[in-house]
Amino acid sequence: MKYSRSLQLIQLGVLGALLMGVALAALSAEKKDPNKFNRLMTPISERNPPPAEDGIHDPESFGTELLQTPRASFSVLPRSPSGNYVNWTKALDDGAIEPRYHRDDADAGPVVMDLNIVREVKGSMPNVVYPHKQHTEWLDCSNCHPALFIPQKGANQISMAQILLGEACGACHGKVAFPVSECRRCHSQPKLEVSKTE
Ligand code: HEC
Ligand code: HEC
Ligand code: HEC
Known about the structure:
About 30% of the residues lie in helices and about 5% in strands. The protein is mostly helical. The protein folds into two domains: about 1-30; about 45-185, Cytochrome C3 (Alpha-Beta Complex), CATH 3.90.10.10. The chain has a two-stranded antiparallel ribbon with strand order 1-2. A hairpin with an 8-residue loop joins strand 1 and strand 2 (about 130). It is extended, with a radius of gyration of 25 Å. It starts with a helix and ends in a 12-residue tail after the last helix. The structure holds heme C (3 copies). One heme C binds near residues 89, 148 and 185. One heme C binds near residues 123 and 160.
């Protein structure tokens, strides 16, 4: 009787330890990936993984091994402080990369539109300058209009909260374009200085 009770206690103890282990594993998984939706906010050590580990390429495929790893191919491009550490805007401006714009036509170029939209920001942050030029060098009008943004200045409500949640500018920034941590690339227009009194 006494013996089986202590056995039960041991079993309970083992069960408790197991549950604790599961809870701890879940916790540490969460710690490892606190911001799942924003893949450019993954820990530095896990960014730009080799093709076989990136979850995009088939690790079983023989071709995957032939691909150059991003860490090698990106090493010669202009750097940025976050995301995948490449300043793609500068890379394009400097001619360090030459993207192909059409699958069937190697000579096709982008339809670039040079139009800046300034969004005034309340408070002390500099205003946001949205440049059509740097976007249409990579993207088509239909990537944004009309689903993401109505093409009319001021017609869209945009907030930092939306962007952080992956909406509006956040549909790309933090996913495929430079992440929200680089404040000054968007908030690039200083407020007019309040005239100083002497
Ligand atoms: C990356 C997203 C994106 C792409 C691509 C894009 N636009 Fe826009 N566009 C915007 C945003 C953001 C605004 C500002 C909307 C606002 O202020 O509410 C805007 C505004 C406009 C406006 C209104 C301008 C005004 O003064 O009212 C026009 C017209 C426009 N876009 C046309 C185009 C055309 C044509 C293309 C393709 C050559 C294009 N856009 C590509 C995001 C984009
Ligand atoms: C459809 C995808 C997409 C959307 C939506 C989008 N961007 Fe971009 N943006 C890009 C890409 C791609 C680049 C160029 C690559 C890079 O710099 O990472 C870029 C570049 C920029 C640049 C140029 C930075 C430089 O150094 O010249 C600015 C500024 C910018 N985006 C601001 C915004 C703002 C503000 C919004 C929302 C109003 C926005 N973007 C919405 C994809 C997008
Ligand atoms: C991809 C471009 C982009 C980046 C990067 C970015 N912002 Fe913004 N931010 C915006 C846009 C667009 C708005 C909306 C402006 C408006 O009211 O039309 C905004 C609005 C704001 C506002 C006004 C209040 C609000 O929440 O909407 C603050 C404050 C702000 N940003 C702070 C920051 C800080 C701090 C950073 C860096 C950690 C940052 N932003 C990075 C695009 C950006």
